[in-house]
Design goal:
Blueprint: H1 2-28, H2 36-41, H3 52-63, H4 70-75, H5 80-99, H6 102-120, H7 126-147, H8 149-158, H9 171-175, H10 178-183, H11 190-193, H12 195-198
Helix pairs in contact: 3-5, 6-7
Length: 229
């Protein structure tokens, strides 16, 4: 029992240190230029999940230098070197996307958007917020196993010459699939109403469970180091 308590305090101290660094970064090192992600997301909240293919197309345009970089020059001081770096990173992202499972990319896109929307609603309990996201991510991973993309990715990790055989070879085929439309419910809260995030594909798969925690160990919603002082 004593060791368990010491371990809990150690984790709490680690979280405190990480958040303090996060706070300092925001206070002292906040960038005054457009972030590369703003180019990809075009400063818009993409609520329509069919836009996953548009994001990929946008990365393609950036990697080829076809994005309108003049907008950045007009709004911020952006040097040619910065734009070259953005194009270089977009090409790296494009190569990774081309090797990735379309289903994994699509699920990641949904999880990103939904987690952002959930956080904007200011959940009362940070621990419940993170646990919900972990559970949804766990369910998504189990469905990747069910469709075979998880195992195909492992084969490629072990053998770089192996060409993965994704369940849906392209994003276009995935988005037009009847199966995916049944598994993902876009009305209301996607994470709460979609089979892919709420249920497991097999009954023998063990659900993700969490232990009850005392109130003093719960993570606050507002990630501020003062909450731990």
């Amino acid at each position: 029992h004593t060791f368990a308590k010491q371990d809990a305090f150690r984790h709490r101290a680690m979280i405190n240190a990480v958040i303090e660094l996060y706070d300092r970064g925001h206070e002292r090192y906040r960038s005054n230029r457009v972030h590369e992600l703003d180019l990809i997301f075009e400063n818009q909240h993409l609520a329509n999940y069919a836009d996953a293919d548009k994001l990929i197309a946008n990365i393609q345009r950036i990697s080829e230098g076809k994005r309108d970089f003049d907008v950045l020059h007009g709004m911020h001081t952006v040097s040619d070197e910065v734009i070259k770096k953005i194009i270089f990173n977009a090409n790296a992202a494009k190569r990774h996307i081309e090797k990735s499972s379309p289903l994994a990319l699509y699920l990641s896109h949904i999880l990103y958007n939904e987690s952002r929307k959930l956080y904007e609603k200011q959940p009362k309990n940070g621990t419940e917020f993170f646990r919900k996201l972990l559970k949804c991510e766990y369910h998504a991973m189990c469905w990747l196993m069910y469709f075979g993309d998880f195992w195909e990715g492992l084969k490629h990790k072990n053998d770089a010459s192996y060409q993965p055989k994704w369940h849906w070879p392209t994003m276009e085929l995935l988005l037009s699939s009847r199966d995916i439309k049944k598994l993902i419910n876009k009305s209301g809260s996607v994470l709460d109403h979609s089979i892919l995030f709420k249920e497991l594909p097999y009954s023998w798969m063990k659900p993700l469970e969490f232990k009850d925690l005392d109130e003093e160990y719960l993570v606050p919603t507002n990630l501020d180091s003062r909450s731990f002082s």
